[in-house]
Write a structure and sequence with these properties.
The complex is a heterodimer.
Chain A lengths: L2 H8 L3 E6 L6 E3 L2 E3 L8 E4 H9 L3 E3 L7 H13 L11 H11 L7 H28 L5 E2 L5 H6 L3 H24 L1 H10 L3
Antiparallel strand pairs in A: 1-4, 1-5, 2-3
Helix pairs in contact in A: 2-4, 3-5, 4-5, 7-8
Chain B lengths: L1 H10 L5 H17 L8 H20 L5 H30 L1 H14 L6 H21 L25 E6 L3 E6 L8 E5 L4 E5 L4 H5 L3 E3 L1
Antiparallel strand pairs in B: 1-4, 1-5, 2-3
Classes of the chains: A mainly alpha, B mainly alpha.
């Protein structure tokens, strides 16, 4: 999938805004939102929040986790742990990118927040590269990847799955030639079924 | 107070437009990531198209400057994108694997477990006919007689079931068997609810189709 599609999926996440206008409840297909009361916080999907922000109809309430103290802790934890730690949520990177892009002025210490999220991302990506390397070297055809977010998983496509596919092909060939030395007649059979 | 309201509506298990949209989005995601064509979700698509039509009629009644109208339009465009991309992905697979799909689908139709909608099936069959006549007109009819035979099944391309995919478990599943190619010790794994894995598509193909796992 393209990164913009992951972003598209992430945009369904619910965030909090403070509208500067009043309006009755609005009935969307993905659910009902509102009523909008000027000055009172309310929840809407991320795509709607960004849209209203661009029309200057609301302020964004920074998500709980988009706070320097919380993020420092996450970063420390991520550095300390050998494994991937649990992120605030599945689409933290999408939320950060869109909110910091469209509403940096609504988020306290926005540029620091941006840097630290990028740091966390970098730590995780380097961990991911190391574990991919280990997985390939162990000749694995199976891996468990808890706490990795969709965007992170997507960033190793198609490299990791394809590398594993190739490894699988090599193993198939090894097996075919091994059985061929045992029994010459099986060579032609399994050899032709190999022909993909 | 608000939290209570939300909990109450969650308890009711009725089919809402919201849940249809969610199912459709998951189906789209699976279809994008699975190597083979998956059973169709035509009822969901039809239902959503009905919702869109209904919504569009309502939007037209609103004054153009109404804020609601542009919010609704934005949402509809998002849903239309999912539907279009879903159908396009399926057509792409149908074209690529047309011969294999039509052969397998014929058996599935007999068993009543068809994966394609009737119109998709017709499309696949016509695609093959057109491809065949195109190849005959451009090449086969102009080569010596003994080379003119057209063997459709030899041209079939099959999806690679051995490719690796990422998945997230919707529920705990025990005893997925991973084949060991070199040794003869097949490995058996259990996956817990909400855990994520990368593994071969083949052993989990059925789990994708019955919704026990979600491809990511």
């Amino acid at each position: 999938m393209d990164p913009f599609e992951i972003e598209f999926i992430g945009e369904n996440r619910i965030v909090s805004i403070i509208p500067n206008f009043s309006h009755d409840k609005i009935y969307l297909i993905c659910g009902e939102f509102g009523p909008f009361r000027a000055g009172l916080p309310m929840n809407v999907p991320l795509w709607l929040a960004v849209m209203l922000k661009q029309k200057q109809k609301c302020r964004i309430v920074p998500p709980d986790w988009m706070d320097m103290e919380v993020l420092e802790n996450i970063k420390e934890e991520e550095k300390r742990s050998r494994f991937f730690t649990k992120m605030p949520h599945e689409h933290y990177m999408v939320e950060a990118k869109l909110l910091l892009g469209a509403a940096a002025e609504d988020i306290p210490r926005a540029s620091e927040v941006k840097t630290i999220i990028k740091d966390i991302w970098d730590i995780r990506m380097s961990k991911l590269r190391t574990s991919m390397d280990a997985l390939m070297k162990s000749g694995g055809s199976y891996g468990r990847l808890d706490h990795l977010t969709m965007m992170e998983i997507n960033s190793v496509k198609p490299l990791l799955p394809q590398a594993m596919d190739e490894l699988h092909k090599i193993k198939m060939m090894t097996r075919t030639s091994a059985s061929a030395t045992l029994n010459n007649s099986t060579f032609t059979q399994s050899g032709s079924s190999q022909n993909i | 107070m608000d939290a209570e309201d939300i909990e109450l509506s969650d308890d009711e298990e009725e089919i809402t437009a919201e849940s249809v949209l969610k199912t459709l989005q998951n189906a789209w995601q699976n279809e994008r990531l699975a190597p083979e064509i998956l059973p169709h979700h035509n009822d969901m698509v039809e239902c959503m198209l009905g919702q869109i039509q209904h919504m569009e009629r309502n939007i037209n009644k609103l004054p153009k400057t109404d804020l609601r109208s542009c919010i609704h339009k934005m949402e509809l465009n998002r849903i239309k994108y999912i539907i279009c991309n879903y159908l396009k992905t399926r057509l792409g697979k149908i074209e690529k694997y047309c011969i294999a799909i039509v052969n397998e689908e014929k058996q599935r139709i007999e068993a009543g477990t068809n994966y394609l909608t009737p119109s998709e099936f017709r499309y696949a069959q016509e695609y093959i006919t057109n491809m065949e006549s195109h190849l005959k007109n451009t090449i086969l009819n102009h080569v010596p007689g003994n080379m003119q035979s057209f063997e459709l099944n030899k041209m079939a391309i099959y999806p690679n079931f051995y490719c690796h995919v990422f998945l997230k478990a919707n529920e705990t599943i025990n005893g997925i068997i991973l084949e060991d190619l070199l040794g003869d010790q097949d490995e058996e794994i259990d996956i817990e609810e909400d855990s994520q894995h990368i593994l071969q598509y083949k052993p989990i193909a059925d789990l994708v189709k019955n919704g026990k796992v979600q491809l990511v």
